């Protein structure tokens, strides 16, 4: 995503929300339900590898402005089924894992691009996990949009100075060429942002673009799925027969684009291709029961797509918060007889 596209008034009320008193549930106040979170990471195991979802924050999205190939009434009907109302909050999720001697970050959040209070929390989330930015050896960018590459730089300096940045070559070529603004509906700001976030990595010789299916890190395979952007990529991490696929922005709003995969968004460079990628990928993920990680679905954004009729439904992973070693001992919480 690139812009909020929200009326300034709404943006202001959301920005002030943490200091405002809690509104009753029936209030039409747009700040109802908005809160600042303290816990910004979620851990899970994929085979031998611990994957950590890291929150970069969240941003409100005016879907009446942003969505394409729908009507406001259709969007609202699907949101209503999901107990939501426009505008809808989008998470910005990044993911961290270690494999061998590599410390890998999938996407980097919005960095400074969205301004104070909106995104840019990734480095704090990383720090709470005891990981310093110079420990990151590889950044896997799902695509070259501001909310995924923004965290690469701060004031022109690399946030992850020791990291190789992997990116689909079509995105590098497209976004670093401003003449593409005249050939697409994309505003020049997209290309300015790429110059800000990617050019310092290019100048430092840190970018390693790929043009076809590539094992970018041992056990992690990149595949290209052009549509949302020309070089949009999935990264599939596999360990001991388990896998997790980081899919980037093939969906922004689960309540709308899972049941109706034909609904697209202003951020798609090619809306028809983006919808086709979404439909094909969801069908495959549902059939193969693939665990996927999604940047903009509610944190941690990890779960499955379930086929429902001719559409799909998002099924988040179950929450766990205990040590795996306790599996056997506490399989039956009532076996001692006296627990409530
Ligand atoms: Zn995005």
Kindly summarize this structure in a few lines.
By secondary structure, the chain is α+β, with helices and mostly antiparallel strands. 23% of the residues lie in helices and 27% in strands. Strands 1-2-4-5-6-9-10 form a seven-stranded mixed sheet. Strands 11-12-13-14-16-17-18 form a seven-stranded mixed sheet.
Write the layout of secondary structure elements.
Blueprint (H helix, E strand, L loop, with lengths): L7 H9 L24 E6 L2 E13 L1 H4 E2 L3 H10 L6 E12 L2 E5 L15 H7 L9 E3 L5 H4 L3 E2 L2 E2 L5 E5 H7 L12 H10 L1 H5 L3 E4 L3 E4 L2 E5 L8 E7 L2 E5 L7 H4 L6 E2 L5 H18 L3 E2 L8 E7 L2 E6 L24
Parallel strand pairs: 5-6, 6-9, 9-10, 14-16
Antiparallel strand pairs: 1-2, 2-4, 3-15, 4-5, 7-8, 11-12, 12-13, 13-14, 16-17, 17-18
What does this structure look like?
The chain is an alpha+beta fold and 340 residues long. The chain has 10 helices and 18 strands. A hairpin with a 2-residue loop joins strand 4 and strand 5 (102-106). Zinc ion (ZN) binds at residues 1, 145, 147-148, 249, 295-296.
Separation, N- and C-terminal Cα atoms: 47 Å
Which regions are unreliable across 5 or more consecutive residues at pLDDT < 50? 3-28
Question: Overall pLDDT, averaged?
Answer: 89
Percent of residues in helices = 10-25%
Q: Please give the largest β-sheet.
A: 7 strands, mixed
- Label the overall shape: globular
Which features does this protein show?
alpha+beta; seven-stranded mixed beta sheet; 10 helices; 18 strands; binds zinc ion
